[in-house]
Amino acid sequence: MEPSDLKDEL
Amino acid sequence: MNIFRFAGDMTHLISILVLLLKIYATKSCSGISLKTQELYALVFLTRYLDLFTDFISVYNTIMKLVFIASSLAVVCCMRMHRVVRRSYDKDLDTFRHYFLILASFVLALLVNEKFTFQEIFWAFSIYLEALAILPQLVLLQRSGNVDNLTGQYVFFLGAYRAFYILNWIYRYFTEQHFSRWIACVSGLVQTVLYADFFYYYFISWKNNAKMQLPA
């Protein structure tokens, strides 16, 4: 998964 | 992680703790919309589908588990607790929240970052969260008086999203490929929905009076 795809926000 | 996002997550957590405090301390859920709580549980369950597939950080995983567990705990308590459920304002909490679910899902099918199962449900959870407070605000409008803990609950819930807007502005200027326009637009709509409530909350705080919403 590209980093922008990872939903790092809650 | 930046200070705005951390502050947003903490105010979100505080809002849930205030809600749980109100329900357990007063053994009453009067003034609380069960429909809003059910919508929030759905928001977290559909947003954190990646809980077991993508590890971001220990903080991220723990907070996701806390949000899912606490929102389900509130719904179960309001539906099943022998004493609490008697104080539920059933005839005031009549917002047709199924329409919010349907509208959010249709919008998520049309407007998403990628047409995949996880992305569609993520977009759905973002749209639904923006609208989830409506049954609660309508219930407060109808009941007229807002008790302190309920007022603080809604206030912290609004503050959380306002902090997130600062977080998105900060990330936009500090990160190259940061583009969360779905969350930004939806978060903006959500915060505007609280504006009315914030105004009356501030007035009551300034006059040190009990909060009243115009019927």
TrEMBL record, chain B:
Entry keyword set: Endoplasmic reticulum, ER-Golgi transport, Membrane, Protein transport, Receptor, Transmembrane, Transmembrane helix, Transport
Protein's cellular compartments: Endoplasmic reticulum membrane
Pfam families linked: ER_lumen_recept
UniProt GO MF annotations: ER retention sequence binding
Membrane topology value: Multi-pass membrane protein
Record-annotated membrane-spanning stretches: 55-77, 98-115, 121-141, 153-173, 179-202
PROSITE patterns: ER_LUMEN_RECEPTOR_1 (PS00951)
GO-annotated biological processes: protein retention in ER lumen; protein transport; vesicle-mediated transport
Listed PANTHER family: ER LUMEN PROTEIN RETAINING RECEPTOR
The protein's name in its UniProt record: ER lumen protein-retaining receptor A-like
Organism: Durio zibethinus (Durian)
